Amino acid sequence: xxxxxxxxxxxxxxxxRNELALAIEAVMQKSAFSGGEFVDVFEKEFAAYCGANxxxxxGSGTAAxxxxxxxxxxxxxxxxxxxxxxFIASAWGISYVGAKPVFVDCTPLxxxxxxxxxxxxxxxxxxxxxxxxxxxxxCDVRALQxxxxxxDLFLVEDCAQAHGALYRDTKVGTIxxxxxxxxxxxxxxxxVGEAGAVVTSDANxxxxxxxxxxxxxxxxxxxxxxxxxxxxxxxxAAVLSVKLKHLDxxxxxxxxxxxxxxxxxxxxxxxxxxxxxxxxPAYHLFVITTENRKAFVEHMRSLGIDTSxxxxxxxxxxxxxxxxxxxxxxxxxxEYVADHCVSLPLFxxxxxxxxxxxxxxxxxxxx
Length: 367
Ligand SMILES: *Cc1c(COP(=O)(O)O)cnc(C)c1O
Known about the structure:
By secondary structure, this protein is of the alpha/beta class.
């Protein structure tokens, strides 16, 4: 029997081969490779999709977070609150601008950033909060917004895993001051290389990101500040315009698969993520926790099911951040999830047979 892959992007590209080839050919014909008209078009489409006034394409999701903090004026001496249970890039931008990441725990059930922990972490030096919509499930962004308003902080949404997710009736990325997206190939909306974007409804922030991403230029060869080369490629933009049309269909299909998992998985040895009230996730990953992860992963592998882990080492325990002085035990919920999480296969092109095999394999697992 074939293995059930954890993720298989090739299936998507088989379906879209002609559309993508035409889009790439159009960019070649116009030689609009760096920035340019395809980027302008995609930015308009993506801003409209999110319901924001502006989108600015950049080189990656990491660059989006970096340039967002630069545009908000966060810098040395400032603290930025960010969850420890996330992909490490949620924190990189804070370090790049010379500010200090202040990690906080997740909640024990939703595994998303805990607003109570955020409130407790605010100091005189805090300038911003980065809320992460991890796994495509919106975090409690209204609670974060309230804390931000009370303490006069910026709120940045890391939407790298949550393109199209709704908090109540609002798309994520438009609730805080700025939303940061990654179009890394395996994300909900993926390029054919590295790409990212910020969305905002603040004209001033949009203008600043535009300058920072392109050498600090306001007009050609006039550099107002030290800038970067973090523009979006024309080819990536053209590909993203093609794929954006399919995003809602893909998100709906993944939600359908997740519902099948949630209905079908009946195993007391396996705990599922609690989805907060009033949100419509754009599922990126389907993560479970189980006491003996090694045995579970081995069991799944023996039945031909590939799995992954997101993420086995929390940010506060990464070697890159030893200088911050965190130790094991600082964030028990984060550490629990890191030690016990397993990600099951989830992608729109999964067959019914594959979905059924995953459910059956999980249910056959005996602790
Ligand atoms: C992928 C990801 C990023 C970084 O995006 P890149 O495009 O890979 O630089 C940031 N935050 C989260 C939560 C991510 O999943």
